[in-house]
Amino acid sequence: MQNAKPGQANTVAYDLVNKSTGSPITAGTVTAYLLAMTGDNAGKWWDAAGGAFADAEASAGAMANVARSLWTVSIAAGAWTAGVAYQLYAHESGSLNCVYTEQIVCGYIQPRIGTEAWTYDVTDGDSDPIADVTVWITTDSDGDNVLDQQVTNESGRVTFYLNAGTYYVWRRKAGVSFSNPDTEVVT
């Protein structure tokens, strides 16, 4: 289960695998669908094109592959209401044979993987902060085991709760190029 922050765009990340072979899906066309399960829009789909909930199934957005089997989609702020439960699922075109469905709860609770607050700053080449960058932490350099995901604030900062160890930091923002992953040691 993932959590979403109400009143802002949320980037949802998850692994897609071929349901027959278990192999990571790394390319293709994948579309995300977001269904409100509770609240005023229960039983309706978020329509990214219309910017509102719809009675008929509608696309919440095209997904992008960011690392091996990890795919993301950014869903607009209007979709997220505090206290509402959502069902997110993916469809693909062609023969990717993917399977994915997950519950999302809006009313973000930051996971605490460890006991220490660890901050990470995203800056450009001139050391200026970059806001609204999706940052996620993995335990492996292939990006398969995602622990947590955050979006940088206006100061380009995110905070994760981690134990001491080596972690791999992945960054993504449209129009910005990053060298992923960034290896970090938390002490």
How do the strands and helices of this protein lay out in sequence?
Elements: E1 2-4, E2 10-15, E3 29-36, E4 45-47, E5 52-54, E6 61-62, E7 64-67, E8 70-75, E9 85-93, E10 101-106, E11 116-121, E12 134-138, E13 146-151, E14 157-162, E15 165-172, E16 182-186
Parallel strand pairs: 1-10
Antiparallel strand pairs: 2-8, 3-6, 3-9, 4-5, 7-8, 9-10, 11-14, 12-13, 12-15, 15-16
Number of domains: 2
Mean pLDDT: 83
Q: Bin the helical content.
A: under 10%
DSSP strand tally: 16
Count of helices?
0
Q: At CATH's second level, what is the architecture of the largest domain?
A: Sandwich
Largest sheet: number of strands, sense, barrel closure: 5 strands, mixed
CATH class of the largest domain: Mainly Beta
End-to-end gap: 28 Å
Which parts are unreliable, with pLDDT below 50 for 5 consecutive residues or more? none
* Protein structure class: mainly beta
